[in-house]
Amino acid sequence: MKVIIEVLLTERAEKSYTKLPLHVKKKANRQFKRLIDIPQYPSLRVKKKQGENIFEARVDYHYRFTFIVEEKTLRILSIGPHDEGLGKK
What we know:
This protein has about 90 residues and is α+β, with helices and mostly antiparallel strands. It has one domain: RelE-like (YaeB-like fold, 2-Layer Sandwich), CATH 3.30.2310. Helix content is about 35%, strand content about 30%.
């Protein structure tokens, strides 16, 4: 597993993140840290999207995010309620 030193949000993810309720932002930040420290952490439920080098994970039951790992960077592609968080909207 690569050592990740930073988390970056794409412009799309940043826009969605700023609209999230504060309690969801706190959960998301916690999950980003868990993903860096322990990628197999049970509450993340990380899955690879079929046929792509993109992964999805849970913030909680209702919110998801997609990401890729580039070099030493965890790049968040999308975040939000289920479909939006998976980049479907």
